[in-house]
Amino acid sequence: MMKAAESGYPLAVSTQQREIFTGLIRIHVLVHAEHESLFGLAMMEELKHHGYRIGPGTLYPLLHGMERDGLLKSELKNVTGRQRRLYKITVTGRKALKKAKTLVDELHHELHEEHPRRVSDLEISEPGESTKADK
Ligand SMILES: [Zn+2]
Predict the structure, then answer these.
(1) Cys staple from 86: which of 14, 31, 37, 50, with CB 3.0 to 4.6 Å?
(2) Ligand 1: centre distance to CA 52 (Å)
(3) How much is the CA Rg of the chain, to the nearest whole Å?
(4) Which residues surround ligand 1, an ion (CB under 5 A)?
């Protein structure tokens, strides 16, 4: 594994790439929230360590969205004299993380394949074909 300093990390996430990488960032958040309560700024530091350069303007709405979706729950707590919003994983979040593990392992495997499966060689069934035959 390449270390952050060797590869020009952390990488800025451009607007065009945001949709792709916020999914990965959400998974990172779930990984850590499974083990401890976390707050935004600390998570930003952790993400920097992993090579993501994102600001609070991206991370805070992302955390709020994850809470809205039921993956995290938060409460305001006093952490070393400062009010912090602390996030914890929910049961729904744990389930999502479990699925993510399987799917990311699968993706990781294919990313490193020299020859990924050829999609154009797959046998396909036309949408609606089987229902036509059923009638
Ligand atoms: Zn991490």
Answers:
(1) 37
(2) 11
(3) 19
(4) 46
CA of 77 to the centre of ligand 1 (A): 22
In sequence order, the 6+-apart residues with CB closer than 8 A to the CB of 53 are: 10, 11, 12, 13
How many domains, in total, are found in the chain?
A: 1
Does 75 map to a domain? yes
Going by their DSSP bridges, the two strands 82-89 and 72-79 should be labelled as antiparallel
pLDDT, tens digit, 9 for 90 and up, residues 5-63: 445 567 777 778 888 899 999 999 999 999 999 999 999 999 999 998 889 999 999 99
**CA-CA distance, 70 to 33, in Å (whole number)?**
13
